[in-house]
Design a protein that fits this description.
It is a single chain. Helix content is about 35%, strand content about 20%. The protein has 23 helices and 22 strands. The chain has a seven-stranded mixed beta sheet. A five-stranded mixed beta sheet has the order 8-12-9-11-10, with helices on both faces. It has a five-stranded mixed beta sheet with strand order 13-17-14-16-15, sandwiched between helices. Helix 1 (about 15-25) crosses helix 6 and helix 13 (about 475-495) packs parallel to helix 18.
């Protein structure tokens, strides 16, 4: 797009065009016509004191067309202004093809289509009709308050068709609509006609200065809730929602996003029925009308669901739509050009409003709520429904974004992202231990990002999605970020995984756990945290995984926005990650950002545990350490690495075939685990020697080893590992020497150790 700006005293841009026009008027040969512009080739005529005009040069159209879009504020303003414009056009005997109030989209506006052979006539009519001064007393406010049901009917008409209004336009409304920032012009015509119109447009007197206008902020600022009493015939509460967004959008795109709104409603409102009852896409925007049932929930829960739906619906429509459609009928192309200012204008006055959501909730006859939201009834706790009160309180909550980490590495061809719960499976009860593994596995399987490496990462200290991939050939950073964010929104927040997918992931999880070694480590986790084994074994015992239901996974999906979520990105340009994060923010605005839940308070069941089908050569010994500060948690991995060869050396020669010392658990519940393989007959001797070795570590016998400095850090090759480490969601080691020595003193005595093997010791 080209932007043409100048002062009225110096307009060299149009001098050549005027000369060519003069020669043509005198009978001289006309200059050769310019080649038609590409469909996306817009020119912006931006001159101080005049409305911006978007110019599209197209040769061969039967008649030039100028579309004027005038912004109003309230529902009905568009048609009120249109009625006045029709009268003014008749008085001037001006030729126009149409004028109507367009109330679809985030705002309301009047659209006027002008056409004439002489460009100067169109420019003069445009200014005279829109800027004609108006005076007179403002009408008195209506004596009868507007009822909620009338509000709903008005919103429905606004969404699905222009409302008919008999109310006159006030002088204040007309004068405000005639100012700069309210008027947007689109021109589709041959090049010579465009030049003549541009010159005539800026030769007229300057337009009135802009007045302050209210512009919608975030999605939460553009959401309204109304409650109306039902007739008592139905026990269920019904939600009528109207979501409209400004900006060009194809019918297919609008239909896809409408389906996302319905899926969001079905997910948010506890799986109750939700369906789209109307979609109205057009050049200026799109509106979706939806009806959903809201059954049996407390006022705070309903308010939270309504708030989450409003945020999510607005976010679904906040992503850019299709570029202006400048092909086809000249009137449609001119309207698209006039409205294209929303995407490219740098004027603060012309910023488009956020996608707008109106919610109308019908309360059944048995409801004890009393509601009056009319202007004559102040909003007090005595006359507002508890749902309204809870909703307003929810909307006033300070925005709390994702815990974000953005790591930029220049030259990277791939992008790596993590989105998930930064507390993982910490603190989960035994019955819910396997649910995160199934949930994130199903989300990963259903994520629509072709060609990307997508995996579910489930661990005690983080559970979510790891994504790795690259933009498509020729894909701009903006389109890439929007595509990834759209896929994540749909998969993680909008629609829960279907039951068939959940069932398939359950079977896969069970198959993965159906090994003797996995059973042994699951038993160790349950011994260390009897009521919340997820603190050590995120996938849970086999019986828990096999009994995980679609209902439990759906409930966990609905709770995602309340979890302490994290977003991490490894990208060559941080702006890509910031754009994706901004697109996800409405879904996580009220996500918890505090500390992770405490681990199980039940003490470990110390002593010897027998796992009947564990490998006969595997002996597991764990030293529980409980909650650890961050430094000691990092140091625990280094300690395990340095104790591995020392532990192997402490065992009698030939007693064991393999020794592995590892850090398990999370900072909220940590343990040091020794996994030793050897003949079952050697297990009593191995256990005795391990206990003696652990006592020596606790007594300071390996102080020099633990104090030795760490070798220079070498970053891992896998970018996913680097990303998780940068986001503090994973750590290979570290910690100071003091931390490692402090850990050694915390290792419990022999009677607190937990040992597991396949058969009892003699």
């Amino acid at each position: 797009m080209r932007t043409l700006s100048a002062d009225r005293s110096a307009r060299p841009t149009w001098a050549a065009a005027l000369g060519a026009v003069a020669l043509a008027a005198c009978g001289a040969p006309a200059p050769p016509a310019r080649a038609p512009s590409a469909a996306h080739d817009l020119e912006r005529l931006a001159i101080a004191g005049f409305p911006e005009a978007t110019l599209v040069r197209r040769e061969g159209d039967p008649r030039p067309i100028v579309v004027v879009a005038v912004d109003g504020d309230e529902a009905g303003d568009g048609e009120r202004i249109a009625n006045v414009y029709r009268q003014r056009l008749a008085e001037q005997r001006a030729h126009y093809t149409n004028v109507h109030g367009d109330v679809r989209g985030a705002g309301t506006r009047t659209v006027l289509y002008l056409s004439a052979e002489r460009a100067g006539d169109v420019a003069a009519v445009l200014r005279a009709v829109v800027t004609a001064p108006t005076s007179g007393p403002a009408p008195s406010p209506p004596s009868v308050p507007i009822l909620d049901e009338e509000d709903r009917a008005r919103a429905q008409r606004r969404c699905l068709g222009a409302p008919q209004t008999n109310e006159p336009a006030t002088p204040e409304l007309l004068n405000r609509a005639s100012t700069l920032g309210r008027v947007h012009v689109g021109v589709v015509a041959p090049s010579a006609w465009v030049d003549r119109f541009s010159e005539a447009h800026v030769a007229l007197p300057r337009w009135p200065a802009p007045r302050e206008r209210s512009v919608g902020g975030g999605a939460g600022d553009s959401t309204r809730l109304r409650l109306r009493k039902g007739d008592g015939a139905t026990p269920v509460d019904v939600l009528d929602a109207y979501v409209w967004a400004e900006g060009p959008m194809t019918d297919a795109d609008a239909t896809t996003r409408a389906g996302g709104v319905a899926a969001l409603a079905a997910s948010v409102f506890l799986g109750n029925s939700a369906k789209v009852v109307g979609i109205a896409p057009q050049a200026s925007g799109v509106c979706v009308a939806l009806r959903a049932e809201v059954r049996g929930a407390s006022a705070p829960d309903v308010a939270e669901a309504l708030s989450r739906f409003a945020d999510g619906a607005a976010a679904l429509f906040a992503a850019p739509g299709a570029p202006p459609r400048l092909s086809g009928d000249a009137s449609e192309a001119a309207l698209a050009a006039a409205l294209s200012y929303t995407a490219v204008s740098g004027s603060s006055v012309a910023n488009p409003a956020a996608p707008h959501v109106d919610l109308f909730l019908t309360e059944g006859g048995k409801s004890r709520f009393v509601t009056d939201t009319s202007a004559s009834a102040p909003a007090t706790s005595t006359n507002l429904s508890p749902i309204v009160i809870a909703f307003e309180q929810t909307r006033r909550l300070a925005a709390q974004g994702l815990a974000t980490t953005i790591k930029a590495e220049a030259g990277q061809s791939e992008r790596v992202f993590f989105l998930g719960d930064r507390c993982g499976t910490q603190g989960l009860p035994k019955t819910a231990t396997a649910t995160p593994a199934v949930l994130w596995g199903a989300i990963a399987d259903g994520l629509a990002l072709q060609g990307w490496d997508v995996e579910a990462r489930v661990a005690p200290d983080a559970a979510g999605l790891l994504l790795r991939g690259s933009p498509r050939p020729g894909e701009t950073p903006e389109l890439f970020a929007d595509r990834v964010a759209g896929a994540l929104r749909q998969a993680v927040f909008v629609a829960p995984p279907p039951g068939a997918l959940i069932h398939r992931v359950v079977l896969r999880t069970v198959a993965e756990r159906a090994t003797a070694e996995h059973r042994a480590f699951a038993a160790l986790a349950e011994a260390l945290a009897p009521s919340a084994p997820g603190a050590f074994d995120p996938n849970g015992a086999l019986v828990v995984a096999s009994s995980t239901s679609a209902e439990a996974v759906g409930a966990a999906f609905r709770e995602l926005p309340r979890q302490p979520l994290a977003f991490a990105a490894l990208v060559p340009d941080p702006k890509e990650a910031e754009r994706i994060q901004a697109a996800l923010a409405p879904f996580t605005a009220r996500g918890a950002t505090g500390a992770c839940p405490r681990a199980s308070s039940s003490p470990p069941s110390s002593g010897l545990h027998v796992v009947a089908d564990a490998p006969s050569d595997l002996l597991l010994v764990a030293a529980p350490l409980g909650p650890l500060p961050a430094g000691e948690w990092d140091a625990l991995a280094t300690m395990a690495e340095r104790l591995t060869p020392l532990a192997a050396h402490a065992l009698p020669e030939g007693a064991a075939t393999a020794v592995d010392v590892r850090r398990i658990g999370s900072p909220g519940n940590a343990a040091l685990a020794f996994a030793v393989r050897g003949p079952a007959a050697n297990h009593p001797l191995i256990l005795s020697q391990l206990r003696a070795f652990i006592a020596r570590v606790r007594g300071g016998a390996v102080t020099a080893t633990l104090e030795a400095p760490l070798p220079p850090a070498v970053g891992p090759q896998d970018p996913r590992v680097r990303l998780l480490e940068a986001a503090a969601l994973s750590s290979r080691g570290g910690g100071s020497a003091a931390d490692r020595l402090a850990l050694a003193r915390k290792i419990p005595s022999d009677d607190a150790l937990v040992a597991l093997r396949s058969a009892p010791l003699p």
